[in-house]
Amino acid sequence: MSWRRYFRRAKWDRERREELEAYVQMESEHNLARGMSDSDARAAAQRKLGNGTQIREEIYRMNTIAWFDALCRDIRYALRGLRRNPTFTLVAVLTLALGIGASTAIFTVVNGVLLRPLSYPQPRRLVRLWETLPKRSIYRNVINAWNFLDWQSRAQAFEGMAAITTSQTINLSGGGEPVAVDGAAVTTNFFDILGVRPEIGRTFTAEEGILGRGQVAILSHELWQRRFGGDRGVIGRKLTLNGGPVSVIGVMPAGFSFPKVPAGIWLSLPIDHSPLWEGGRFLAAVARLKPGVTVGQADADLKRVAAQLSKERPGFDQGWSAEAAPMLADTTGDVRTALLVLLGAVGFLLLIACSNVANLFLMRGAERYREISLREALGASRRRIFSHLLTESLMICVLAGTLGLGLGEWGLKAVLALLPQSVALPRSESIVLDSRVLACTLALCVLTTLIFGLVPLIRAGRSELQQSLRVRSRAASKGIRRAFVCVQVAMALVLSVGAGLMARSFARLAAVNPGFDTERVVAMSLSPAGRYPNAQAVAGYFERIVSEVRSAPGVESASTIQFLAMESESRSCFTPPTDGPLPPVSVQPSAMFSVIGPDYFKTMGIPVERGREFDGHDGLGSPTVIVVNAAFAKKFYPGENVVGKKLMICWTSNLPNPAEIVGVAGDARHQSMADAPEPTIFVANLQAPTFGNLIVRVKGDPAQIERAAVAAIHKVNPDQAVAKIRTLKEVVDDSVARPRFQSALMLVFAGVALLLASIGVYGVASYSVAQRTNEIGIRVAIGASRGDIAKLILREGALMCGIGAIAGLAAALGLTRFLASLLYEISPSDPSTLATVCGVLIASAAIAIALPVRRATRVDPMTALRYE
Amino acid sequence: MPRRESPLQSEMLQGTLDMLILQTLVLGPAHGHTIAHAIERGSEEVLQIEHGSLYPALHRLEDRGWIASFWGTSENNRKARYYRLTPAGRKQLTAQTARWEEVVRAIGRILKPAAE
After folding, report:
1. Of the residues A300, A332, A364, which one is the last residue of a structural domain?
2. Which residues of chain A are within 8 Å of residue B50 when distances are taken between CB atoms?
């Protein structure tokens, strides 16, 4: 028995025919030689050989691989059956493909973001470290440099820990158009902790971590390709970063990145115990555990060190602690719930699709009782019939799986395109259809086949030959079918409630007034493009740029802000002046701090409620002035006029205290659209200069301003890169992109679920009408009115939907609490959403059932009676 | 796929026929017609085999790798399928013959018990 011969059976058989023919020829010649007549000789030869066809058949059978042959036959038979029923096939395949496709797409995302291990060696030993302030419920806070150094030297549980700054825009100039590149500074052991070697060149030496010695940079593979065309001679080349010379020492391999810190360039971070690094918290950290150490042990170890530090430096660290968390969970924590909710949603969708197809099969199965019984009577074994029926569902599944995989890939692209680049999911680079996804899709196919393919099988298995030949088993699978519809309705309801809640939550979020003008304000990011010996120089540079932009055509006003709304923020502390020594920093009240230029509020369209905003006279030599927002005034000086009050603020040491409040601005959202405005202190950029964002209020169309503004900036410095030019509307839209993405997907899923459930209700109701035509005919004949008939069918439908809806509501109330963290200003059991969703469900069920009811009321008693 | 017959009977007959075919081919390659007649003649017409049953047997033996086949030309210039013994077939024949003789001796001892 060989596969080769199996597939060449026909040729083989031809050869056997020749061989047998040769025998007959030889034998007849032999007989002729013995003196027989021509015809006798041949007949005798045939006799001697025996039945040639039987011999060939025997050999043919020997060459046949029986199970494979049976499978081929089953597949052929199944395909023929499906072709004969194109509507059934189409509906079943499309329904399943939708379910499989949606599940594949979402599972691909979940797999890429939540499940795939981080792409570093031994990723389970990597942890992220944070400072915490438990008494104010502040967790995952960035770290003070001195604290980090002390953790590094005192903690026992770690093989090593590295610090990294948040990503910042770096001005890369010299040799062509200046560009803004994302960059981050890291301690020199950063790459060793992650365990990644450079593609070419080397990583930092310890020496390069000393302040003033680290004029070296490591490039990402992507930047190397884009800017330097993958030239290996880039090693040792001098670049101009932020106006200073830096030489390239290495290029990291393709795909290397650190989560949430986009970087094309890595610089060394020269932290040490000098006073320069004493204050402030701004570092992120990653550490590798010693082999065998658990995260819990490491966390305890770190807390022990943090407790020591808080005793040693109470002025700065009092109340502060620390935490270590597994890196993967830490990285994906903020999207985990949302993704799992979506995964649950597609799971429901898939189950609805499965039960729909199972129902289709059941109805078909009921119609095929006779066929099956006949085949049984003709001698088909139970096993053959089972395998035949299973093949049929398998064919549907293979078709649906193939289509679903295609749909899934397309859906995945569509899903990812819903998210703007700037707010992509963490680890979105690892979202790919990998073998695990394929295995999962395959498993889904097998599972769905089992679910919808097995139920009719069990029924077929029970079919008693005699009985089913005699009577048409009418009510055979009615119970199961109804149960399936109830489940569908229930699941569609749960999904719709989830979608409804998320959509309403998003609508509320989108309707929030941020407190500033989003339409006519354009923001752009500036990074230092030259060496500035002192604050004066930075301030002067900024003043020139702003005044140049202000006089550009189409510009109404222009200003600056260090961290743009929705993107980043900084916090610090303040205290009213006292006669004695100031209280330690760690117990002073804190507020948000924002560094802004003159005319900021005018440019943003934020009202100044009292006093004034900064102007060009609030410079480095003049008395320190600050503006606060209404929330600040209300929280710290309720009912008082704060203008004229003096505060001691913790900001850069060049800003002399006390600072005088000169104005109160209206509240505007800064952290996010979902968070109410926080008490904020505004510091004048001309007094504490820093790079940041330029904001421009335009007279006309914001799209027109880009070129004029860039030209104006380049008039001041042609090496100044201008990045991320966008309107504040885009900034705000991007900030709510994730909730929009979640609610849009949920709405789509809920819509599909409702559609499938409606199809399910319709299918069962119309099948029931078809089956009961006879009964309806009799009822009409003995005087039932159309209304009675309609009631008959409606009652059945209403019962199914009612039970489904009640079960669904109960499940929804139980499940929606998982949504709570994703919802904005709406309760997970919001009654009006529940009511609306129930209304929609009832309406779609009513539409689905209307047609069968109509058909039932049109039944002509004569035709119906003749029907049987 | 062998047909389901009574296993004992089919195995005995099959084994015997197989051995006879292999034995015939020891003398050199031959085609089906020659093999059939050779077996008949060799047994002095005692073993009357149905010539047709030879072909499935040949097929089976080839399948097991004991014989190999090729198309050739017969003595009277006809196209014919020739079979020859492979080394594996030769080994098989030796083994089978030995076993056969053992069985024959055993049966002989039972049927003709040693002189009393």
Report:
1. A332
2. 48-50
